[in-house]
Amino acid sequence: MPGPRLAVVVGNRDFFPDRLVTEGRADILAVFGELGIEPVILGEQETKLGAVETWAHAKRCADLFRSNRDRIDGVLVTLPNFGDEKGVADTLQLSELNVPVLVQAYPDDLGQFTVERRRDAFCGKVSVCNNLRQYGIPFSLTELHTVHPATESFKNDLRQFVSVCRAVNGLRRARLGAVGARPNAFNTTRYSEKLLQAAGVSVSTLDLSEVFGRAAKMGDGDARVKGKLDQIGVYADASKVPPAALARMAKLALVLEDWMEQYGLHATALQCWTSIQEHYGVNACTIMSMMSERLMPSACEVDITGVTAMYALQLASGRPSALVDWNNNYGDDPNKCVFFHCGNWAKSFLPDIAIRTAEILGTTLGEENTYGAVAGRTPAGPVTFARVTTDDRAARIRTYVGEGRFTDDPLRTFGARAVVEVPNLQKLMRHICRNGFEHHAAMSGSHCAAALAEAFETYLNWDVYRHE
Known about the structure:
Layout: E1 5-10, H1 18-35, E2 38-40, H2 55-67, E3 74-79, H3 85-95, E4 101-105, H4 121-135, E5 140-141, H5 152-171, E6 175-179, H6 193-198, E7 202-206, H7 208-216, H8 223-235, H9 243-263, E8 267-270, H10 275-279, H11 285-293, E9 298-299, H12 304-317, E10 321-330, E11 333-341, E12 354-356, H13 359-365, E13 373-377, E14 381-391, E15 396-407, E16 416-421, H14 425-434, E17 440-444, H15 449-459, E18 463-467
Parallel strand pairs: 1-2, 1-3, 3-4, 4-5, 6-7, 6-8, 8-9, 13-16, 15-18
Antiparallel strand pairs: 10-11, 10-17, 11-16, 12-13, 14-15, 14-17, 15-16
Helix pairs in contact: 2-3, 3-4, 5-12, 5-15, 7-9, 8-9
């Protein structure tokens, strides 16, 4: 899989020393090499020093970017000196890339505050950003106003920016699958396809009758079914699951995978109860867990905006995500709670994963019809949580993001479960309730809230609440 590719605009003002541009260009390429980022950048002979200053330079650089449009994930604007704000803005406008932009400016060295080494990029960055705002080009900023590329601070800026690029570009062309109707009792998972489509997120649908019909045409002895059974056995402890239930799971997995491939889908949300238990005789959790582990996130209860958040977290972090319920208080600790589902979390969250029955659903649907739920406990570690919702009344997509940590606090219960500590949790819960967010959230075993908030707000123009 190819690494990230960033286009690079090197800004210049010709009355600053040439060596600053030459050194800056080399610095950026060295950092790119260290971080595995492929540059798309003018050669040093294509314009003066390979930088952009004039209208002619802007056109030449924009031509290069346009010819590589399908390969470019984002743009880095680097200012070794004050730079030419019009040259930078003209380049980005002419290139029509529509990708995230990061603006970096070099710091001056007080020990070299002379005509030969003075940069003035502190001021130039303000001018570049002013012009980008005038041109209507959204952009990201480094943590420090001026920062040298060789520092760990800038490397962290670049890592976060690459995450922003993945999230933005992925969501703008996301293809999601809705399998079955939402459970009738769950108004909470209603959503607007039209608002999602306006943001670039497409939804394809599949009726459960088609799923069950296609699965019924597969024999237990089919080579593909046997292959999928082997995958399930390797994935999780299935020792307590009847062979007939395992065969049904395998066929269900194959039907969904074939459908996803047919329509180029990245993620799915399923009606996981009650039709599948009543008319097919298993829970879909195991195969959903397997798909999420393979970076094909799958959400419960046809929660399309929930799986949108799952996919966003996956894009930003590069790791599997899961859908959870904000489910229980944890004793009298105001900053801890229990995440739970019955459950379909990816194996990455459950090192002790086992295939079991869904104990709650089994009380009404018959426990023998609920084999396929996965159970396990998430160990201590980082967590980022996020939610996407379509607010039809305001004709807006709204989100929240935040970070906390999984803990090893005692928890004696069943299903897929975790204890989570979130600073100011009560404030977050008030925000969720007052603003009509769903009881579901997506989670990732990483810290990537800053990148996700930047992607949602700056580039997708979604409303964001960043919990801290």
